[in-house]
Automatic annotation (TrEMBL), chain A:
One of its GO terms (cellular component) is cytoplasm. GO terms for molecular function: ATP binding; kinase activity; magnesium ion binding; ribose phosphate diphosphokinase activity. InterPro entries: PRib_PP_synth_CS, Pribosyltran_N, PRTase-like, PRTase_dom, Rib-P_diPkinase. Keywords: ATP-binding, Kinase, Magnesium, Metal-binding, Nucleotide biosynthesis, Nucleotide-binding, Transferase. Pfam families: Pribosyl_synth (PF14572), Pribosyltran_N (PF13793). SUPFAM superfamilies: PRTase-like. This is ribose-phosphate diphosphokinase. Belongs to the ribose-phosphate pyrophosphokinase family. Its EC number is 2.7.6.1. It catalyses: D-ribose 5-phosphate + ATP = 5-phospho-alpha-D-ribose 1-diphosphate + AMP + H(+). GO terms for biological process: 5-phosphoribose 1-diphosphate biosynthetic process; purine nucleotide biosynthetic process; ribonucleoside monophosphate biosynthetic process.
UniProtKB/TrEMBL annotation, chain B:
This is ribose-phosphate diphosphokinase. The keyword Metal-binding applies. Its EC number is 2.7.6.1. One of its GO terms (cellular component) is ribose phosphate diphosphokinase complex. Residues 4-98 form the Ribose-phosphate pyrophosphokinase N-terminal domain. Keywords: ATP-binding, Kinase, Magnesium, Metal-binding, Nucleotide biosynthesis, Nucleotide-binding, Transferase. The lineage of its organism: Eukaryota, Fungi, Fungi incertae sedis, Mucoromycota, Glomeromycotina. GO terms for molecular function: ATP binding; kinase activity; magnesium ion binding; ribose phosphate diphosphokinase activity. Residues 147-166 are annotated as: Disordered.
Length: 323, 391
């Protein structure tokens, strides 16, 4: 009986992560050339046969998002035309995840559009990490695996945050309460919440702390850090209420615009992000940034998907073997 | 006109304004911007419920950004209960399907520029590696040479994947053709109808399940020639390559003018292997008008003009439907022997006009406006091409 093999293609958004994932699987990245013509159209050339193979395309929704999204779609379509057996889109940071509801008249639900586009291009399976809202899985008609960075975060807290037993887990907004309480429960720590009023996109007005942080270390937990206005404002609010030190752990460190300046000038002790989005350049000018490597989570998911093993068991494995 | 809304995308706001004013209505209010993390943001500020929506977006400039913007606008209108959403795309993106050329022994001939290895090719500062177009030949990046075995100069130091497998594996490198994908994406976003002009590949209409109206730029070209060239009857229509012969002969027949063709001959078998461009037809002491649909890097028309001048042409003009002019095309035109290049404004031309004195523009807004009016009222659009002189 012929078996097929794993082929991993990387788009231009995050080649380093793709290399780490491939290395963990003991493979080389498969050959592909993705470039732009002089008139800005994207061109994809596949350098190996993918006929009847299990193809994984790793592309994160970061940097030039529209360009990277088009690259991903064209690569998926190219593999489908080349008779791949199954095409899985591995998208560590899902693009347009925040435009997931019609919160005002005529607002587009772009996350749904992206889901449709991926399916139309030919993706049979989607693997992503820490979706902004897990209901986005319902936008797809194909199976979606939403992995969690939580075990990696817990490991980091235990290993790298001194005096973590005397800390309080704080969620910088009401929406992230569930995420923060989950971490607080697993570490057996107290929990607090900051309630913020937001008038315009990327602009925060008023912050109210619910809970007690005086004399404690604080660990802020959130899923995305974009302009970091929220985090910086939260940190200063917490310091006013008596927090000793404020750490921030974030799944997706988008860090766009003036985020680096904001972090450097804030009273945050450290900002920890996963490597779903490349930030090597930013680390050089901001010593407060630290990285959690999630390539092992992705690599394990790819391996289990290919071998037909349970990902639920992976979660169990991660939860219980991380400590 | 009632129950119609026209939105302009950010690729060509000028064209949208002209079309709207020609129709006697205001453009629909929409706010287009980008979030801080580069995601596109679309806010539609008027009701589109049960209305006929037309979204005007050209596939030029930053193609992927403009295309995503178009898809998001279409999707937003659709879920806001618009009755019908039409995408008006004068210059259609990804319309050129790259063909892998073959060598004489049947093996594929595909070459990439030397520093294209899992990364972007920016408009390369190094002189000899010019950015490719969908129609150009490209070097093979999978074979190790001293030039491409290191990391290329560019944004980040990415070392190439181990290029141990070369041609010897018998695997044929091929470039993905994105035509069907683009058609499917437009349909899945919710477009009910597409209007475009002079599609590079007319078979493209078959990739869609929804109606596609491919308007002809030819009547506008014919009108321009009649109005702006004195003694046009004595001029010669020239096609700059064999592929465009059909297009050029259509214009020549309409005007009953002479026709000539420039043909790139295959490399000769005996060394030195030169590839010759040959002129088929007579152009001595005549005014030549080159006709083509797309001018991207403008290599084609400048090389053709050189051949015509060598063969004794008096004056050389070029009429191009889509003047994309990417990279240093403008400079090339300015330095060439062409006297004037006439393009339509399917792609915004303000910048090009400033940099180059040889460019003139003919307007397509009246034709599109009339087509939209007829579609909205349910009248025939092909009848439009019989009365193009009046536009």
């Amino acid at each position: 009986m012929t078996t097929n093999s794993i082929k991993i293609f990387a788009g231009n958004s995050h080649i380093e992560l793709a290399k780490f994932v491939a290395r963990r699987l003991g493979l080389e990245l498969s050959k592909v050339v993705v470039l732009k013509y002089s008139n800005q159209e994207t061109s994809v050339t596949i350098g190996e046969s993918v006929r009847d193979e299990d193809v994984f395309i790793i592309q994160s929704g970061c940097g030039e998002i529209n360009d990277n999204l088009m690259e991903l779609l064209i690569m998926i379509n190219a593999c489908k035309s080349a008779s791949a057996r199954r095409i899985t889109a591995v998208i560590p940071c899902f693009p347009y995840a925040r435009q997931d509801k019609k919160d005002k008249s005529r607002a587009p639900i772009t996350a749904k559009l992206v889901a449709n586009m991926l399916t139309v291009a030919g993706a049979n399976h989607v693997i992503t990490l820490d979706l902004h809202a897990s209901q986005i899985q319902g936008f797809f008609n194909v199976p979606v695996d939403n992995l969690y960075s939580e075990p990696s975060m817990l490991k980091y807290i235990k290993a790298s945050i001194p005096d973590w037993k005397n800390s309080v887990i704080v969620s910088p907004d009401a929406g992230g309460a569930k995420r923060a309480t989950s971490i607080a429960d697993r570490l057996n720590l107290d929990f607090a919440l900051i309630h913020k009023e937001r008038k315009k996109a990327n602009e925060v007005s008023n912050m109210v702390l619910v809970g007690d942080v005086s004399g404690k270390m604080v660990i802020l937990v959130d899923d995305m850090a974009d302009t970091c206005g929220t985090l910086a404002y939260a940190a200063s609010t917490l310091k006013e209420k008596g927090a000793l030190k404020v750490y921030a752990i974030v799944a997706h460190g988008i860090l766009s615009g003036k985020a680096i300046d904001v972090i450097n000038e804030s009273c945050l002790e450290r900002v920890v992000v996963t490597n779903t989005i490349p930030h090597e350049e930013k680390k050089k000018i901001c010593p407060k940034i630290d990285t959690i490597d999630i390539s092992s989570t992705l690599a394990e998911a790819i391996r289990r998907t290919h071998n037909g093993e349970s990902l639920q068991e992976q979660n169990y494995f991660l939860w219980h073997n991380i400590f | 006109m009632r129950n119609i809304v026209i939105f302009g995308g950010s690729s060509h706001p000028n064209l949208a304004e002209q079309i709207a004013s020609r129709l006697g209505i205001q453009l629909g209010k929409v706010k287009l911007s980008k979030f801080s993390n580069q995601e596109t943001n679309v806010e539609i500020h008027e009701s589109v419920r049960e209305k006929d929506v037309y979204i005007i977006q050209s596939g030029c400039g930053h193609v992927n950004d403009n295309f995503m913007e178009l898809l998001i606008m279409v999707s937003a209108c659709k879920i806001a209960s618009a009755k019908k959403v039409t995408a008006v795309i004068p210059c259609f993106p990804y319309a050129r399907q790259p063909d892998v050329p073959y060598k004489k022994n049947g093996a594929p001939l595909s070459r990439f520029p030397r520093n294209a290895f899992m990364g972007y090719v920016h408009n390369a500062p190094s002189g000899d590696s010019t950015p490719p177009t969908p129609a150009s030949d490209i070097k093979d990046p999978f074979i190790v040479t001293e030039q491409n075995s290191g990391s290329f100069d560019g944004s980040s130091p990415r070392s190439p994947a181990s290029p141990t497998l070369g041609r010897g594996t018998g695997y044929r490198h091929w470039i993905a053709r994105s035509g069907t994908l683009i058609a499917n994406l437009l349909t899945c976003a919710g477009a009910d109808h597409i209007i475009t002009m002079d599609l590079h590949d007319p078979q493209f209409q078959g990739f869609f399940d929804i109606p596609v109206d491919n308007l002809h730029g030819q009547p506008l070209v014919v009108k321009y020639i009649k109005q702006n060239f004195p003694n046009w009857e004595q001029a010669v229509i020239v096609s700059p390559d064999a592929g465009g012969a059909k297009r050029a002969t259509a214009v020549a027949d309409k005007l009953r003018m002479d026709f000539a063709l420039i043909h790139k001959e295959r490399r000769s078998q005996i060394p030195p292997h030169k590839s010759d461009t040959m002129l088929v037809g007579e152009v001595k002491d005549k005014v030549c008008i080159l006709i083509d649909d797309i001018a991207d890097t403008s290599f084609t028309i400048t090389k053709a003009a050189k051949v015509l001048r060598e063969n004794g042409a008096n004056k050389i003009y070029a009429i191009i439907t889509h003047g994309i002019m990417s990279g240093d095309a403008i400079q090339r035109i300015q330095e060439s022997v062409i006297d004037q290049v006439i393009v339509s404004d399917s792609v915004p031309q303000e910048e090009h006009l400033e940099k180059c004195s040889k460019i003139k523009v003919f307007h397509i807004a009246p034709m599109f406006a009339e087509a939209i009016r007829r579609m909205h009222n349910g009248e025939s659009v092909s009848a439009l091409f019989g009365i193009m002189e009046m536009l």
